[in-house]
Automatic annotation (TrEMBL):
The keyword Isomerase applies. Pfam families: Topoisom_bac (PF01131), Toprim (PF01751). It is an enzyme of class 5 (isomerase). Belongs to the type IA topoisomerase family. This is DNA topoisomerase. It comes from the Archaea. Residues 614-633 have a biased composition (Basic residues). Residues 604-633 are annotated as: Disordered. InterPro entries: Topo_IA (IPR000380), Topo_IA_2 (IPR003601), Topo_IA_cen (IPR013497), Topo_IA_cen_sub1 (IPR013824), Topo_IA_cen_sub2 (IPR013825), Topo_IA_cen_sub3 (IPR013826), Topo_IA_core_domain (IPR023405), Topo_IA_DNA-bd_dom (IPR003602). PROSITE patterns: TOPO_IA_2 (PS52039), TOPRIM (PS50880). One of its GO terms (molecular function) is DNA binding. Residues 4-145 form the Toprim domain.
DNA sequence: GCAAGGTC
């Protein structure tokens, strides 16, 4: 035996961290089959840690069932998927097999969640094939900090097959229903020669399709919205303390006009009530992935997919912590003061940081905890120059946001005075609302949505105010806007569609499939996406309703709790979806007919748009050419 | 050519 212990982590960064926490200065870096690994002394023996890259194995159907044209998609419900090696994962298998020969004890240091447990079972499967006498121990830690790691390596657990089986069952169910529904939809339009370009298909998925439904639902709500006229009477009042504007709303034009003449003829009003209430605005809770993505969309003008990609780069280069996390509370073992101290000379916030360090601070705390990763926080203070030079301007936006969000979570509340005055003129009531910022608090370092002063004068009940001006405005109620990405992310979270790491992908998949587009930060269905969502809803609503994913999840939890066997539950879930499949299959002609229409619109329009765009491009190129030539002369 | 979930 060469190694007393071989430690397998879910990713390289964790393998490296474990080595440094356990091995101190004895760590030696090496490569096994091209995979980075770390040798060190621990527990009186030479040990080695290595990271895989998430899952190593995946489910797929046996080859003969992947011939779309000769296999009835319905058959997939009766075929057991097999485990295959993931693309690019073979080097990890080779490395693990090699290490299996060089130790007798393997410590499974994967993330503390069901996916991590599933990966642990993949590792065990691979390694025990190479060496059946291996002993496996599970290290369970909820943060990659020295304290948590040392604690986890004192008290090992047993691998928990129920947890792993929950993940494996989800994989099997998702593959089966995804593949069967995607195939029946795709084949139905292909049979009709339905404008589907080569290599494209019509996909269905238990996450992507409910996401589409949410986007389409909003479009239908807009269309069904009944606009209504209403009337706002705005009155400018003068008091000894200052001028302010109150308003009253009417549904009816004649009543509004009547009110206007009353206001004009009386010409003054009495303060019926006045309120000046201070309220605290709490700083945001510690940052998780979905919140970062939604703030990216709202404040930084970045798409969720882009935000996450940038965050990953910043993480890989040591500027921020691991960006895929649900957690919104700092683990007690994270040294916030050390991180804060790094920022005492940063971007004009130095004075603020020094004040916090001097006065002391208490971090905000959210409710979510994925038990695997801490919230996202900066791990290094870096200048704008440095970040822009290395990763570009967009990366600076993300880094600066992470840093400022972190500082905000340690900051004091902002204090706002909310103001409200009601003025009576005869029997009419006019309301005025205002606000005054009393103390900026965390907004001093978090300049993204700073409340603005819009104060009212300080008046007492019974005071008389004079009418300076009265204006009647006709307005129309407006339909809701198309969904924004930030709203969609919030809805996905509410319904439990996708995970922190995958939500942006489900949005992206729909865009890729031409089911909806993003325009001015709003999500607009294409005729194809709309047809798909509507016709599925009309045939089998269960396939598109957003609750579907949450219901699957709560069933799968029973596997993790050991209340039901995975085989039994997978069988039950597949039977349910088979009945949906049969319902859809009965109506597939009708559905396909509509889908062909949608495809026609999407792909033909794209063609004409593309030729349009290329013509435009050509002419602009011509223009550029001429200006360049001019410059030369 | 399918999904969703890890990770890069």
């Amino acid at each position: 035996m060469i190694y007393g212990y071989v430690i397998v982590a879910e990713k390289n960064s964790v393998a490296r961290a474990i080595a440094s926490f356990l091995g101190g200065t004895s760590v030696k870096r090496l490569q096994i089959e091209g995979v980075p690994a770390y040798e060190f002394n621990w527990n009186n023996s030479r040990s080695l840690s290595i990271g895989v890259s998430g899952h190593i194995l995946n489910f797929d159907f046996p080859k003969e069932y992947n011939k779309w044209n000769s296999i009835d998609p319905r058959q997939l419900f009766f075929i057991k998927p097999i485990l295959v090696t993931r693309e690019g994962a073979y080097k990890y298998i080779k490395a693990l097999r090699q290490l299996a020969q060089k130790t007798s004890t393997v410590i499974l240091a994967l993330d503390a969640d069901v996916e991590g447990e599933a990966i642990a079972f993949e590792v065990m499967r691979i390694m025990s094939q190479a060496n059946p006498s291996l002993e496996f121990k599970r290290a369970w830690f909820s943060a990659i900090t020295r304290t948590d790691i040392l604690e986890a390596f004192k008290n090992f657990r047993k691998p928990n097959e129920n947890l792993a089986n929950k993940a494996f069952s989800r994989m099997i169910v998702d593959l089966t229903i995804g593949a069967s529904f995607t195939r029946i939809l795709t084949l139905s339009v292909e049979k009709r020669n339905g404008f589907l370009p080569k290599g494209k298909f019509l996909s269905y998925g238990p996450c992507q399709t409910p996401v589409l439904y949410l986007v389409v639902k909003r479009e239908l709500e807009r269309e069904n919205f009944k606009k209504k006229k209403y009337y706002v009477l705005r009155v400018k009042f003068e008091s000894p303390e200052g001028v302010f504007t109150g308003h009253a709303t009417f549904d009816d034009a004649s009543k509004a006009n009547e009110a206007l003449s009353v206001v004009k003829s009386i010409g003054k009003g009495i303060v019926a009530s006045s309120e000046y209430v201070t309220v605290n605005i709490q700083p945001p809770v510690p940052l998780n992935t979905v919140y970062l993505e939604s703030r990216g969309s709202l404040f930084l003008n970045l798409r969720p997919k882009e935000t996450l990609a940038i965050a990953e780069t910043l993480y890989a280069n040591g500027y921020i912590s691991y960006p895929r996390t649900e957690t919104t509370r700092y683990p007690p073992t994270l040294n916030l003061k050390n991180i804060l101290s790094m920022f005492s000379e940063w971007e004009n916030t130095g004075w603020y940081v020094k004040k916090l360090l001097l006065k002391g601070f208490k971090p905000t705390e959210g409710r979510e905890d994925d038990k695997a990763h801490p919230p996202i926080y900066p791990t290094k203070a870096a200048s704008k120059n440095e970040i822009v030079r290395k990763f570009g301007e967009k990366a600076w936006r993300v880094y600066e946001y992470v840093a400022r969000h972190f500082l905000a979570t340690l900051s004091e509340d902002a204090i706002i005075e909310k103001q409200k005055i009601i003025v009576n003129i005869d029997k009419l009531q006019f309301q005025a609302e205002g606000r005054k910022v009393v103390y900026l608090g965390f907004y001093q370092v978090y300049p993204y949505s700073v409340p603005q002063d819009d104060p009212l004068p300080y008046l007492l009940k019974g005071e008389e105010v004079r009418v300076l001006e009265a204006k009647l405005e006709e307005r129309t109620t407006q339909p809701p806007q198309y969904l924004s990405e930030a709203e969609l992310l919030a809805l996905m979270k509410k319904y439990g569609i996708g995970t922190d790491a995958t939500m942006q992908e489900h949005i992206h998949t729909n865009i890729e499939r031409k089911y909806f587009i993003v325009k001015n930060k709003r999500l607009i269905p294409t005729p194809l996406g709309r047809t798909l969502a509507v016709s599925l809803y009309e045939t089998v609503p269960e396939l598109v309703l957003p609750e579907i994913r949450g219901r699957m999840e709560s069933k799968l939890v029973k596997i993790a709790n050991g209340e039901v066997s995975p085989e039994e539950l997978v069988q039950e879930m597949l039977e349910e979806f088979l009945s949906y499949y049969d319902k859809l299959a009965q109506n597939i002609d009708k559905v396909a007919e509509k889908l062909v229409e949608g495809l026609k619109k999407v792909y033909q329009e794209e063609d004409s748009e593309a030729s349009h765009a290329s013509a435009k491009k050509k002419s602009s190129m011509k223009r550029r050419k001429t200006t360049r030539q001019r410059k030369k002369i």
